[in-house]
């Protein structure tokens, strides 16, 4: 029997990884992006950003592949990309599948917990577009896209750590969990996550193109990326703006790419894919 052709899928975080933490620019990643394009490797954004934000970025970068949005609260697949993956919603040119409760349910739960316990936090649902722009450093028009949410809520925790632990336990009782991102905590469904979404998409690629042996690379910079890095074949961390790497479990054999954000991202693509034959 002939061995299967090896093919790669790259799952990438955006903010602080492919995009610069401060400017949100991807220009420093150009050398790595050119390799990914040349080899026709699926580049799947795996991000805390919303689908509306990701759609604009895909258009800017001329990318047409599935995306994992809102920290794995949902996946979106371009129309006609896969034949066999069950998808629940239609939005723009994407078919969407949610892996957690809808946004209204999450926000209602948060409002009840805050009212009953006196917690101090602010979510995107509490803010105007202008406030989100100030909190994130995004232009107002992009902040508006960041508030078009499907199944998660970013919050700024303004209370003490002890109360946050109590808050997390109460969320778990409601089928929700709290995930730490680069700037915010994110409330999402307990069964949602970048790792689960990545495994679903890898299975879809294997079903759609069974003559290939699909291998996965995952690259990120924040605690909310560990869920992804633990399920891919090649887990990669880039340096954060302070030059440090996040701590990881000893059991995770992660590659630490030299370079902050998109510079480290580009190094990883060149290092792992630059000498490979095109697939």
Strand share of the residues? 15-25%
Whole-angstrom Rg? 19 Å
In sequence order, what are the helices and strands, one letter per element?
Answer: EHEHEEEEHEHHEHEEHEHEEH
- Name the poorly predicted regions: none
Number of helices: 9
The strand order across the widest sheet is: 2-1-11-12-13
Query: What is the distance, rounded to the nearest whole angstrom, between the alpha carbons of the first and last residues?
Result: 20 Å
CATH class of the largest domain: Alpha Beta
Would you tell me the overall average pLDDT? 93
- The count of strands amounts to 13
- The CATH superfamily of the largest domain bears the name HAD superfamily/HAD-like
Query: What's the structural domain tally?
Result: 2
The helix-and-strand class reads: alpha/beta
- Please name the CATH topology of the largest domain: Rossmann fold
If classified by CATH, what would the architecture of the largest domain be?
3-Layer(aba) Sandwich
Main sheet record: 5 strands, parallel
Structural shape: globular
Helicity, as a percent range? 25-40%
